[in-house]
Amino acid sequence: MPDKTILVAPLHWGLGHATRCIPIIRALLSNNYKVLIGSDGAALALLRKEFPVLPWVELPAYNITYPKKGEFFKLKLFLKLPEIKKVMSLEKKLVKQCIAEGRIHGIISDNRLGVRSNDVPSVFITHQLNVLSGNTSYFSSKLHQRIIKKYDACWVPDLKGPNNLSGKLGHSAKVKFPVTYMGPLSRMQPRNMPIVYDVLVLLSGPEPQRTLLEVKLLDAFRGSSYRVLLVRGMVEEGETFYVKENITIVNFLQSTSLEKAINESRWVISRSGYTTIMDLAAMEKIAFFIPTPGQFEQKYLAKELKNKGIVPSCKQDDFTLEKLNEIPFYKGLKNINQDTNFPELFTLFERE
To answer: N or C: which terminus of the chain carries fewer CB neighbours within 10 A?
Structure first.
């Protein structure tokens, strides 16, 4: 029987990396592994709320924010590279210390580039074998692949074949390391519940773009005929609700409350982040996407799903309530989940 502790360390860049680690942590615990949670900021706060009895370690922050003008994001990220390298060094140091103290026997890093070790089995989780960055996509992809190659395994939360969610992001014939497609990950379960809200707005992601979209959507929906629940994606002490006319606003929702809210809503408006897409596909929800300005990955996913006639979307600046009239002309997301064979994946941690 395993009696090993696995460090599960998602990147804090919005909440998506943390939320898709929830089913992995649950699976580790049900397969008799112990878990040490490692992250920072709201991602760490969210996982501590989901798993209040689990030990945790605060990792150094990447502190990635979006400029107000999305087209400057690539430049801002480039200027931040020296700082990111410094964070990676701090991560490696912290991991080395945890191993030396006997606190961890394996690592699952969700896009934390410095959380790995040659001394214990190390897994990298990503849906981005290819990192889209406009005219520098080739170089950003190669750089990312060089980092992934150093890990013992790469798990992609998607299906291998053509019926997949990540498209060219998670599928590449050119990578020089083995890739395991673990199937889409979601902490959500669809249930047949009465509709309470016409629209559920799910906000997340780095500032200031999260706030800019919140202000825009509040202005658009206030006083309209839509019954709206707006989840701000701000992880705080408790779930605090307040009502403004036809809009109910809550700072954040834990998994069970969020699952209930999605089940009780007719439509969902959100960013086109990959974890959100996996959750909404698991719930078979009708959605409308507004990709984060300057975020090439979200733009690509929104465009792909729009071109396939699955989910409509538009630019943040272009959103109006009239855009929602497009929804009936799209098929909506369907559940393509396969059961992830966690025991087989976890055999990696049993090697000597």
So the answer is: C
Q: Tell me which residue of 188, 36, 45 sits closest to 108, measured CA to CA.
A: 36
Of 1.20.140.10, 3.40.50.2000, 1.20.1250.20, 3.30.565.10, the CATH number of 197-329 is 3.40.50.2000
Q: How far is 219 from 132, CA to CA, in rounded Å?
A: 32
**Domain boundaries for CATH 3.40.50.2000 within the chain:** 5-183+338-350, 197-329
- Those residues whose C-beta lies under 8 Å from the C-beta of residue 282, and which sit 6 or more positions away, are 184, 186, 188, 189, 190, 335, 337
195 touches 264 (CB < 8 A): yes
Between the two ends of the chain, the Cα-to-Cα distance in Å is 14
Task: Check residue 155 and report its DSSP letter.
Answer: E
Q: Are 289 and 272 in contact (CB under 8 A)?
A: yes
